[in-house]
UniProtKB/TrEMBL annotation:
It comes from the Eukaryota. Transmembrane segments: none annotated. Keywords: Disulfide bond, Secreted, Signal. GO terms for cellular component: extracellular region. The keyword Signal applies. Belongs to the beta-microseminoprotein family. Its main location: secreted. It is found in: Secreted. This is Beta-microseminoprotein. The keyword Secreted applies. Residues 1-19 form the signal peptide.
Length: 106
């Protein structure tokens, strides 16, 4: 029952906050585990901690498990043949740029 409730909270709370379906993943802790390891960076985090990893996923470690949700909302790409989405993991932002010359916006 505790896992079901946690799953509902993990799924519904981001929807209410962002108003859309974020890219989230949950890893449940095995019995006796006292920390979480970020699957992206391999860094160990204490229970009840929150962080943003190198791929801009906001993660939270709880006694039930670790949930990580993408913080970058991909922009609408009006013309996929001419444009592409460029991700900046230093600023956790994305923008649509010209496919042939990424220095130009699209």
């Amino acid at each position: 029952m505790k896992c079901l409730l946690f799953g509902l909270v993990v799924f519904l709370v981001p929807l209410l906050i962002k108003g859309e379906f974020p890219d989230c993943e949950t890893t449940f802790l095995e019995q006796g585990q006292t920390s979480c390891i970020d699957n992206t960076d391999g860094i160990q985090h204490d229970l009840d901690s929150t962080w943003i990893n190198s791929q801009c996923y906001k993660c939270h470690c709880s006694s039930v498990g670790m949930t990580c949700c993408d913080t970058i909302v991909p922009p609408n790409n009006p013309n996929p043949k001419l444009c592409t989405v460029q991700y900046d993991y230093d600023t956790c932002q994305a923008r649509v740029v010209n496919r042939d010359d990424p220095s130009l916006p699209c």
